[in-house]
Design a protein that fits this description.
Strand content: under 5%
GO molecular function: proton-transporting ATP synthase activity, rotational mechanism
Pfam families: F1F0-ATPsyn_F
Distance between the termini: 89 Å
Order of helices and strands: HHHH
Helix content: 55-70%
Number of helices: 4
Structural class: mainly alpha
Largest sheet: none
Length: about 100
C-alpha cells in the first residue's frame, strides 16, 4: 500500500476527543482500577460444593462422577422392566389362564 493511500485511510478516523470527566487523568488507568476492584471482590481458593442430599444427587455422585459403567447397566435393566411391565399391562393380562 502506498504512502498516499495509507494517509487517506488514516484521515477517515477522527481523533479521540477527551471528555470533561477524563481531563487530567488517564482513562486507561481508571478502567484498569475498575477491573482490579472487580477481581478483588471475587472469592479466593478452591470452590466448595455442597454434599448431595437428594437420591438423584447421591446416585450421580456415586456412579457418574466416579466414571463407573453401572449407570448403563441400570438403564438397560430399567428399560427391560419397563418394557415387560407395558407388555403385561397391554397384552399378557388378558390371557391369564387361557390359551393364546
Amino acid at each position: 500500500m502506498s504512502f498516499v493511500a495509507r494517509r487517506q485511510l488514516s484521515t477517515l478516523i477522527p481523533p479521540k476527543i477527551a471528555s470533561a470527566a477524563n481531563i487530567g487523568s488517564n482513562p486507561a488507568a481508571k478502567r484498569m482500577q475498575s477491573i482490579v476492584s472487580f477481581y478483588e471482590k471475587l472469592p479466593r481458593g478452591a470452590a466448595s460444593f455442597a454434599k448431595a442430599t437428594t437420591p438423584v444427587g447421591i446416585y450421580r455422585e456415586k456412579f457418574f462422577e466416579s466414571g463407573s459403567g453401572k449407570p448403563l447397566f441400570h438403564l438397560s435393566v430399567g428399560l427391560l422392566l419397563l418394557g415387560y411391565g407395558l407388555e403385561y399391562f397391554f397384552h399378557l393380562r388378558h390371557h391369564k389362564g387361557e390359551e393364546h
